[in-house]
Design goal:
The chain is α/β, with parallel strands linked by helices and about 450 residues long. The chain folds into 2 domains: about 140 residues, Alpha-Beta Complex (Aspartate Aminotransferase, domain 1), CATH 3.90.1150.10; about 260 residues, Type I PLP-dependent aspartate aminotransferase-like (Major domain) (Aspartate Aminotransferase, domain 2). It is built from 14 helices and 15 strands.
Length: about 450
Amino acid sequence: MAHQEANTGNASSIHHWYDPHSTPANITGGDGITVWDDNGNEYLDFCSQLYCTNLGHSNEAVLEAMDEQARTIPYVSSAKRTPAREELATQLAQIAPDGLSNTFFSISGSEANEIAVQFAREYHDAPTVLTRWRSYHGGTYGAGALTGDPETRATIERHAATSGAAKFLPPIPKAFDTNDPAELARQAGEHLEFVIRNENPDSIAAILMEPIAGTSGAFPAPPGYFEHVRDLCDEYDILLIADEVITGFGRCGEWFGIQTENVSPDMITFAKGITSAYSPLAGVMTTPEVASFVQTNGFDIGQTFGGHPVGCAAGCAAIDEYADGVIENVAELEPTIRSKLQAIEANHRVVSDVRGRGFLWAVEFADPKTGKPFNDPRVSDEENPVTNILQATREWGVMFGGGRPGFQIIIAPPLIADQADLEQALDILDESITAVFE
């Protein structure tokens, strides 16, 4: 007993993305778009915690739906059917891009991406999936192989190699040395075709991409790029998978980010916003062709908590909430974010770029003398002034997210934020940049 008491006296959780040199905030409560810590400090939550609390922290409709489901039956095996699961699948089919009709539920975005890849490999009897450098698709072994972020992939592969993924360049100006959108779309599309042909099209099961990059920099593709990708997938018989773990459920001004590109994928993976993060839930939406293949051949893989009924009830309620003006709010207020960030870029020479869509934006920093990042954590461990900006905004009451790589800041407020919230938070960002650099 004495030994047990000694151990529990020092007991604590080990938080994710653990850094022994920093102490995370201890969040004890929240309401709307505001959270507070154990010292009573309040913060505007402009990272939606992990880009997921899209409806804020106190949506009564979602909470009531979860409570009702838990009191009806709190758990049903993922190998069985239950009304909440079937209702959510029906609602998803109604809001999904044309052609996506069936859903396989899982628990996290990492697992959803792994399941989608498994579907694609089985469907095409092919081993390879193409993903972009400077991408993030999850932190498990399978999803880590898909991820182009070197910090994540190197951590996972330190003791065991992953396989089955090949990388291509994202459609960003620095990758192709052009700022002309049409030229960028052309070069990036031709580069992707080169990779497809180099890998052998028959070996490629799918191309997996975020419609608008998430934590890797909120960069949208240039006009025409996704149409080119869709054409390549059709020409070489490759499935197109849209990773909507961050971009789904209104964050980019439509139900799904890929809908801002007027392209229909063969699969969508989702998580985070499906329940506004009130309950863990994720999944894969597929075309009837892929679904029929799985249903005909079987799929002898599952997860205990995939499609948890309480999560599905939360998802149904969240979709109703999104449909009640929340997504329209994002579309209406996107110009406010855009204009405020463009003003910040004009006011500060250290801001090298701003970009994004809807309520998902990035501010990138670089030394104006060299055009290079003050610190690129991929190749240097020197002090990073962007970290100081994040610290300053937190001291003044706003939480933003750090991007991958760490020379950028991600702006992703809950979708219920109003114009005053956006102006207040971005004014604080502006003042914080001044405090750190000037």
